[in-house]
Amino acid sequence: MARTQSLAQRDPNATRRVCRCALLAALAVAVAAAEALVPMPAPIPGMKLGLANTVTVIAAFWLGPAEATVVLAVRILLCAVLAGQLAALPFSLVGGVCALAVTLTFVHLNARGKVRLCCMAAAVAHNCGQIAMAAILTATPQIALYLPILLVVGTATGYATGTLAATVLERLPHLLASATNRIERQNAEPSPGGTASEQHGAGACAPHPDRSTPSAEHPRHA
């Protein structure tokens, strides 16, 4: 108990950060699942827009490296298990780690105004990591011939996801401030039920007119 209290005193916002991390992880899984249901017309099978990576970028710039790593790991593992594609897990892990490394580099450089460039570079790194893993596991270096196409497509999709991530990060402080003000106003308003109960309690304490004390005009007889 003492250790729990000391951690809470050191970081009073720890619970809030954990909740936000969990929400982003759930959102990333939901977006990845929805994206898997809509096939994307592309020259290479399995190519996706990568909208779930947007959530990881938002987590990295908003919460920090640790939370972004958790969001990425939860999303990759749960999507592989739920979709029954454990064979694709190594490709997703390597590509995700490469993209996360690029994203955290931008975060470390405090390049918040270059989110689009960050997503473009992360998408390219993701494709390079997946191609390298495919060439190693299948022992077919010819797979690298797809790399030029993946670089072009990755740059385009990275710009699209970067635009979305930049828009969310730009509006996020205003949304949080609005939600906080709304909660504070609701807490400051008096509860109508409590006021009624207080009035009812005050009325209950008042003496009943029929229960008055005996009048002095009617003395008791011995």
UniProtKB/TrEMBL annotation:
Residues 185-222 are annotated as: Disordered. The keyword Membrane applies. It holds the Pfam family Hpre_diP_synt_I. Keywords: Membrane, Transmembrane, Transmembrane helix. It comes from the Bacteria. The chain crosses the membrane at residues 93-110. InterPro entries: Hpre_diP_synth_I, TonB_box_CS. This is Heptaprenyl diphosphate synthase. It comes from Enteroscipio rubneri. The lineage of its organism: Bacteria, Bacillati, Actinomycetota, Coriobacteriia, Eggerthellales.
